[in-house]
Design brief:
Pfam families: HPPK. It is a single chain. The protein is of the alpha+beta class and 195 residues long. The protein has a single domain, classed as Alpha-Beta Plaits (2-Layer Sandwich), CATH 3.30.70. It has 5 helices and 8 strands. Strands 1, 2, 3, 4, 5 and 8 form a 6-stranded antiparallel beta sheet that branches. The protein has a two-stranded antiparallel sheet with strand order 6-7. Helix 4 packs antiparallel against helix 5. The chain starts with 10 loop residues before the first helix and ends in a 10-residue tail after the last strand. The protein binds adenosine-5'-triphosphate and 2-amino-6-hydroxymethyl-7,8-dihydro-3H-pteridin-4-one. The site of 2-amino-6-hydroxymethyl-7,8-dihydro-3H-pteridin-4-one has 12 residues, from strand 4 and strand 5.
């Protein structure tokens, strides 16, 4: 006879698997780009780094210097400047779970998605995830515009001078081909690697 004190778990609960809870057995590396051009930009970038570190299955291994950058892809002078940085992670989250987590961190910092390349409190993009190359529009790897963006490649090169962007080659070589003029180091500002 079944025990009447044991309540069955509703099927809907059993089936609700949060993608960010799925893990791989071997950690992989990933590089994320962080950007902010509204609100307290430095505080937000640090908060995003700390939130990523607080994610089960994510360890932040390196944090780049901070750059102040002209908004890319929009009319000059139409938006406030960005603070940008990149982080390098080790993660047991598969790519789709990492993207889901990136979106959750953006939302925690009140990210509003209205216009493409519009101003934002926080942008978290997956620049690269291990050597994966994919043209899936939900998660394109590497990020489809990373090879064109000095605000991504300069800080990545700072923390990993030998880095390669899968499908594109060494970051150092990509940097020789793009305009880096709108990207200014801010050595007076610092982001902390979580302990
Ligand atoms: N590598 C990636 N990293 C983050 N988002 C991606 C990636 N590839 C595809 N996407 C998709 O792009 C969608 C739009 O992302 P987002 O709003 O961050 O774009 P954006 O920051 O305005 O512009 P950009 O994509 O040029 O950085 C996301 O919902 C996501 O599904
Ligand atoms: N300077 C700068 N420009 C941008 C940035 C960014 O992070 N920095 N992000 C964008 C959309 O991801 C569009 N333009």
């Amino acid at each position: 006879m079944s025990d009447p004190t044991v309540q069955p778990v509703p099927t809907s609960v059993v089936e609700q698997v949060d993608a960010a809870d799925i893990t791989l057995s071997n950690p992989r590396w990933a590089v994320l780009s962080l950007g902010a051009n509204l609100g307290n930009r430095l505080e937000t970038l640090q908060g995003a780094i700390d939130a990523l570190e607080d994610t089960p299955g994510v360890r932040v291994k390196a944090v780049s210097p901070v750059y102040e950058t002209e908004p890319w892809g929009v009319e000059p002078g139409s938006q406030p400047s960005y603070f940008n940085a990149v982080v390098r992670l080790r993660t047991t989250l598969p790519p789709d779970s990492l993207l889901e987590r990136a979106h959750a961190v953006e939302e925690a910092f009140d990210r509003v998605r209205d216009e493409r390349w519009g101003p934002r409190t926080l942008d978290v993009d997956i620049v690269a995830y291990a050597e994966i190359v994919s043209d899936d529009p939900v998660l394109t790897l590497p990020h489809p515009r990373a090879h064109l963006r000095a605000f991504v490649l300069i800080p990545w090169h700072d923390i990993d001078p030998g880095a390669e962007l899968p499908g594109h080659g060494p970051v150092a070589g990509l940097l020789e081909r793009i305009d880096s003029s709108g990207v200014t180091a801010r050595p007076d500002l610092e982001l902390r690697l979580p302990e």
